[in-house]
Please model this.
Amino acid sequence: MSLTKEQALKQYFGYDSFRPQQAEIIDTVLSGEDCLVLMPTGGGKSICYQIPALLCDGLTIVISPLIALMKDQVEALRSNGVSAAYLNSSLSGSEQDSVLWQAKLGELKLLYIAPERLFSGNTFEALREWNVKLFAIDESHCISSWGHDFRPEYRQLTVLKQRFPDVPVVALTATADRVTRRDILKQIGSEKAKTFVSSFDRPNLSLTVLPGRKRLQQIQAFLLKHPNQPGIIYCLSRKATETVAAGLQNAGFKAECYHAGLTGDQRSRVQEQFLRDDIQIIVATIAFGMGIDKSNVRWVIHYNLPSNVESFYQEIGRAGRDGAPAETVLFYSYQDIITRQDMILNSGQSEDQKELMQAKLNRMKQYAEADICRRRILLSYFNESILEDCGNCDVCRNPRTRFDGTTIAQKALSAIARTKESIAMGMLIDIMRGSRNRNVLHHGYDKLPTFGVGHDLRGEEWAEYLGQLLNLGVMDIAYDEGHVFKLNPLSWQVLKGEHKPELVKFIPLAERKAKEEELVPKEKPKQEIIKDALFERLRLLRKQMADALAVPPYVIFSDATLSEMAQKKPISEAQMKAVAGVGAEKYRRYGDVFIKEIVNFAKEHTKPGTRVVKGMTYLHTLELYKDGYTLDDMAQQRGLSASTIAAHLIKLREEGHGVKLRDMIPDRVYLSIMDGVRAINYQPGDPVTPLFEYLEERYDYAQIRLAIAIWQEEGEG
Model:
């Protein structure tokens, strides 16, 4: 019998339900339609093509930009019982031939491949022999020159729809603004394809910006508060990665640098050490991380300001992919802006591209200098808004004084509307301040009713407030139209007085108080048990097993799954499979070992008269049962009533522990109780007392309960 998508999700991945939009995306793909999927890092993009791959006959080709991503995902899929492989330059010739044969013989469900490998040799021609049923283009923003990580080799993917018009294409990315989204669909030849935009909100990520002074000392203070938690520090230059890594090593931390100047073998070694939790800290340039599937990164620090919001969002998204709390820190100084501007000027790009890069840098600068909820700013950039401040960023934790900015917003929006949404920030400020420069006069903007309405504010004040309004989602900016401002539905609500945006009063940079130089640890929610003793035991066990199997630890179980185990302390197959992330194959491979560790931990930490682990009392009864004790002996040994022991045995039987209830009472007793059941027409769930009284108290409640459980189990009546 073929599986449903829900059954496949549980069996292979161990989850009971889909995240928002996943089910609809899967249905769209299964119906043969193309689509574009935007989901934040860790949001579950892979499931959107992995489930269809499992449900379809034939092969799914996953086009992915980096070797590390393929290797990680294939290892994780195999651990879940899915036939998958990858094809890239890290394989020997014979290994590549083996994968090609597997694809040809139909032995694979998913094949991960880099675009340059896809179009080399005769691989692309061989696709027709492989019964390809789906193309998944991961990191699809790489196909667009508007994207922050454009890769020319991705342009070749435009031929997919030309050569395979009947094979659906699903393009996936975590970072693409509206301009990039349109270009992705244009490049894959499916401009009318359905676009799914999931929420970009990652509420488990804490957002903090700190002054760029004494950065190494601040990082060391941070690390002391996050012992053994793996994380990434992003630096702008290769030299900085080496300097920071050396400083941390000298302070006693397990840290290594990673940049493009290292040999391939050196990069691979460092990456493997990090993936396998042999080192805690990677200090890297942006050369590291794209597609890294390590789910237990607990923090990301930016030593320098990123060049744009897309890159920043993608890089912080590598923290907390398992959904557990994680922290992100951005160091910021004005020197970072000067450095980035110099890089743009010397980039060798066209003037249009330089202008685009400068505009995106300005948005990153606004984020770093903001006095409003930082999560709102990030979400606004991706055309999403939230009604309330997040409470999980440094601004929300230390709120600033605000005022009603409706009048300021209406002046700006009115000017945008009267110029037919055709002006950028500089011109908008000139119009509102009443500047009579050549451009203003040339376009006749001095004749507008809004000319000079904002003369009471300085240019830098207007720039600050316009940035806040942009970050609040009160208006949009079109980078592909000369960075002009555009109105949106919220703009019109403000103009009509239906929405009142709150702004933070402008304070000149020179007057701003220095922010605290030391990181203040955020109080963790009670459910977070990263430092819990049992979690650490399970983490150590996971590491030992991973080393023995030569896979990264998170391939066995994620931090989130271990955390749930440490909270729920499952001691049976049913309880373990109820933990999110424990599917049938994962349980078969690892379930018993982790249950044994939980039981051993519980025994070590259980004091007489107390019960630390829920279910341990059942486990004690199970051990006595396995040792051959009778019902009465078990009750006496444990100091409990026979009825309670009977309830334990019934529960253990329901949870699949192999308890044979018929062995607990003689056949004559069972048959006599069944006579009573039929005589009074007893039904399961009815009170037991009438049956006890009908039988004239010849049998105790324990025997009656066991008999009823046997009757229900065997379907007798």
